[in-house]
Amino acid sequence: MVEYGTISPVIVMQPVLEIYAPDGFALWPVAESEPFGYLALNGDLTSAEVGTAMMRIAQCNDIDPDPQAGDDRPPRPDEPLASFLHGLLTFEDLFAAGGLRVTDNTTGVTLMPGCCNGIEEWRDWYAVIEGGGPVGFGHSPDPLAERHGETVRLVVDCDKSDSPEIELSTTELRRLLEGAEHDLAAFLALAADWLRTHLPHQAVPVTDALARVLAHPTAA
User: Fold this and answer.
1) Residue 116 falls within a domain, yes or no?
2) 3-state DSSP call for residue 19?
3) Rounded mean pLDDT, 8-29
4) Is there a single domain that holds both residue 90 and residue 184?
5) Could you give the 3-state DSSP secondary structure of residue 135?
6) Is residue 115 part of a domain?
7) Strands annotated E in the chain
8) What pLDDT, on a 0 to 100 scale, did the predictor assign at position 218?
9) What number is the average pLDDT over the span 12-39?
10) Whole-number mean pLDDT of the chain?
11) How far apart (Å, rounded) are the C-alpha atoms in residues 107 and 109?
12) Is residue 220 assigned to a domain?
């Protein structure tokens, strides 16, 4: 299978979701995973992997309403499934820990999204092509991308003077971003089908929320 996210034979860009071990999660089937890792989102995930991704995305938004902080969302319901999905379905601004992972297969250098970076911010990469100045993608590490003429320099951790770097052209970066968008669209379509099977009563609102998390307007 040809993936748009791997359109370059040398440099690969993938949308990835930060995941943790499920720890007894039982609301729907999920895949076994390491204590911490990243799951690449695309249209080739197994059903259990989609379940893992949906679990993690809901977890990222599983926060109690806080009226004292101006949070006017309705109270969390008591029913377990509705309670777990409450944040995903009520937050205006959704978050999913992760972002875009870039790997140079020639040098072995990989740029990972930093802490507090979210997949929903992936379109910020286009600001690099537009030349609006350096763009950061989280911290600890502190990945950074900046344009120099027609070349884009990706710094794995700008907090280190000897940080590894990846260089590519603006044309190649645009192709890779188009590939990442294709992967996200394919995952969204796959997840929409998964939701109709596993969460039929919540499928429509959860799919809409997922499209917002992925900064993608529709499910295919």
Assistant:
1) no
2) strand
3) 92
4) yes
5) strand
6) no
7) 11-20, 36-40, 98-104, 110-111, 135-136, 144-148, 151-155, 165-169
8) 60
9) 95
10) 93
11) 5
12) no
Phi and psi for 52 in degrees, rounded to 5?
-65, -45
Residue 219 pLDDT more than 60?
no
Copy the structure tokens of residue 130: 């537009």
Pair (35, 89) in one structural domain = yes
Residue range 214-218: average pLDDT? 78
Residue 199 tokens, joined: 């969460």
Stated as kind and residue range, the H or E segment containing 100 is strand 98-104
Is pLDDT of 38 > 50? yes
Quick one: how far is CA 204 from the chain centroid?
20
- Cβ-count burial of 172 within 10 angstroms (0-12 exposed, 13-18 middle, 19+ buried)? middle
Q: What is the DSSP code (8-state) at residue 45?
A: -
Asked if 120 contacts 213 with a C-beta cutoff of 8 angstroms, the reply is yes
Same domain? 25 vs 85: yes
In a domain, 203, yes or no: yes
One domain, residues 30 and 68: yes
CA angle 187, 45, 47 (to 5 degrees): 100
CB 198 within 8 A of CB 29: yes
Distances (CA, A) of 6 to 3, 108, 135, 176, 179: 5, 15, 23, 8, 7
Question: What gap in Å lies between CA 97 and CA 86, rounded to an integer?
Answer: 18
Say how far residue 200 (Cα) sits from the centre of its chain: 24
Residue 132 is part of which domain span? 105-110+121-178
Q: Does residue 14 sit in the same domain as residue 91?
A: yes
Query: How many folded domains does the chain comprise?
Result: 2
Is 18 found in the same domain as 84? yes
Indicate yes or no: pTM above 0.90: yes
| 27 plus 55 within the same structural domain | yes
Question: Residue 217's pLDDT is what?
Answer: 64
